[in-house]
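PROTOCOL LOG
Step 1. Enter all chains and additional molecules of the complex.
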Amino acid sequence: MSVEVRIPTILRTFTGGAKAVHGNGATLQQVLDDIEARNPGLKDRIVEAETLRRFVNVYVNDEDVRFTGGLNAPTADGDVVVVLPAVAGG
Amino acid sequence: MYQPPGGIAPSLTAVLKITREHVDAIIAHAREDHPDEACGVIVGSEGTDVPTRLVRMINADRSPTFFRFDPQEQFELYKTMSAAGEEIVVVYHSHTSTEAYPSRTDISLASEPQAHYVLVSTADSGAADRPVSVRSFRIVDGVVTEEEIDVTE
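Step 2. Run joint prediction.
Step 3. Record the structure below.
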């Protein structure tokens, strides 16, 4: 078992086209570090200066991690992490 | 996986085919929310490039110069699309005091490379039932390419 991370279309260039990748870790930060090792460059598009990028939404199961600790949000085997770039503009 | 122009998947074309009903719905939404920017999507079956279901989204910023989908509503949309094998085919939003052309912010934040970005300007019409400008673009890697809109009845 591990944590499944769903990758949005725009970031699939970092996963060889895969819609989802798997990683291990007890926090979102650890999971992202783990998948970064096999998908170099991916983390940088989600995290900036040790915090989540302002225009990237991340959910662990059904919770927006901005309300559950951000990068410190707890993760466990079987959890599903969804990464969604905010749809926004001016 | 999306590839830049030259390697565009066969299902993607340089034309947006869209129904009159959807165009009218986008314009109606833009007029209703004027002077704030209105935003939403038309989703369709993955890989078909055919927009079938229009979903109005809340502009969480409720602003005349900015829009952002409400994160919770966007997540609900994601779950619905994911379960149905759908994706975003059209992202639309309005400009209420400038032309229907992607702003710098639109370009820097564009993150749906498979989508047609439809802009409607209510700068001249306001909320009134007067002509508006509607244009469609691809925005990929910071490059804006305007495309034709083929309106079907």
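Step 4. Note key features.
Residues 1-12 of chain B have pLDDT under 50 and may be disordered.
Chain B has one domain: 15-152.
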